[in-house]
User: Fold Putative nitroreductase TM1586 domain-containing protein from Filifactor alocis.
Amino acid sequence: MKIEEYLSAMKKRCSRRKYTNRPIDSKYVQQLEDSIALYNKESGLNIKLVIGSGAELFSGFRKSYGLFVGVQNYIAMIGSKTLPNRMEKVGRFGEKIILEATAMGLSTCWVGTSYDKNAAKELCEGNEELDCVIAVGYSDEKHSLKERMMEYGTHRQNKSKEALIEAEEHVPEWFKQGMDAVYLAPTARNLRPFVFEYKDGQVTASTTVPTETAMIDLGIAKLHFELGARVGSWDYGNGSHYYFDDKWKDGDI
Ligand SMILES: Cc1cc2nc3c(=O)[nH]c(=O)nc-3n(C[C@H](O)[C@H](O)[C@H](O)COP(=O)(O)O)c2cc1C
Assistant:
């Protein structure tokens, strides 16, 4: 997908927690499968798209956080326990898939806790771990009352963009654009548990709160930065560096 399409999907995306029973168009199922196959190869993860049995994970299951209705399909973010940087990869590649799904007109939501993890565990083989799922499907344009309540609850948490930046010197335009994109990144409970530091012309990104999903959040945020700044790539790891490269020349990523 073109960089412009990722950026416009980023602006459009928001978490949706109520889904209709319309099945995902088969051409989009195929496109999602193709992306997943590609990203599994690139990352070493074992991401799986599950069509039609979302109810097993979400119905009748109650938790204080998350009020999901009508989930039919989901993406299981699975990887081997020994895979280096697994959680960060889950964030990066899951968010890439989410932005592509958004461009297809699909609704999504990252789900770290409010689902029946045991019901999904059978998708794991041997030494694998399921870190998160992503609900995916169609939603009504209008947000339901329950959805608006959830949005009110989480969006009240209002960490400013400035609070995510550490810089003692003037920052270049590409860094600002990167941070604008970071600000659009979803995070668990909207906590934004990270900081991006600009120092001596170098950028690093680190977590600030040791939550269970902080490395997934960081992976998502680093992808957003990369798409917004468009001058380089990241090393994996907490506190790792951003380095310049010219992969951005042709507009495809
Ligand atoms: C790693 C991760 C885990 C999440 N887990 C849940 C969850 O268990 N239940 C839920 O309702 N929302 C969950 N969310 C969605 C966030 O609450 C949501 O992204 C955040 O409030 C920002 O809102 P937005 O996505 O509409 O921009 C999760 C998000 C992320 C990134």
